[in-house]
Amino acid sequence: MAVLTVHPVDHPMLRRKASRVSRVSAGLRTFVDDLFDTMDANRGAGLAATQVGRPWRVIVASVGDERLALVNPEIVRASGAEVADEGCLSLPNWFGPVERATEVTVKGRSVDGASVRRRLRGLLARVVQHEIDHLDGIVFTDRLVDSQRLRFVDPRSPEASRLRAS
């Protein structure tokens, strides 16, 4: 597979609303593999197609042992709320507090084209919300609860390791 270039936060693609995918194809499955490779190479928890320059509603996420790829994802239910630090592969090493639902139900399609409906909790729910925001042209800095708390974290620091794991 391939590691793709992740666009920086000021790239116009990140402010564009992504288009629905009309058909899941072998090419799309290869692209999803590339998204996972790119996410893993950059030590991320999620990645949206728009972050690598594709205007498609496709995301991947990985938390612990769980890996998830969704085509045309939609949040159909959300509950709870929690403020926690988030970062983004398009704004490396910057973190800030964002409020997200603690539980979401998401629907979409798998890379096999099957309908998917999943209830997600905790960090996986947060990551999926973050990635779906990317598909709508929203970056995490738009959702900061306190912009004064956006901060750069040295990637070699213990805090950086903790933030990447959370």
Folded structure, characterized:
It is a single chain. With 166 residues, the protein is α+β, with helices and mostly antiparallel strands. It has one domain: Peptide deformylase (Peptide Deformylase, Alpha-Beta Complex), CATH 3.90.45. The protein is built from three helices and eight strands, in the order H-E-E-E-E-E-E-E-H-E-H. It has helices at residues 26-41, 122-135, 158-165; strands spanning 46-48, 58-63, 66-79, 82-88, 91-100, 103-109, 115-121, 151-152. The protein has a five-stranded antiparallel β-sheet with strand order 1-2-3-6-7, sandwiched between helices. Strands 4-5-8 form a three-stranded antiparallel β-sheet. A hairpin with a 2-residue loop joins strand 4 (82-88) and strand 5. The longest helix has 16 residues, at 26-41. The protein is globular. It starts with 25 loop residues before the first helix and ends with a helix. The model has no long low-confidence stretch (mean pLDDT 95).
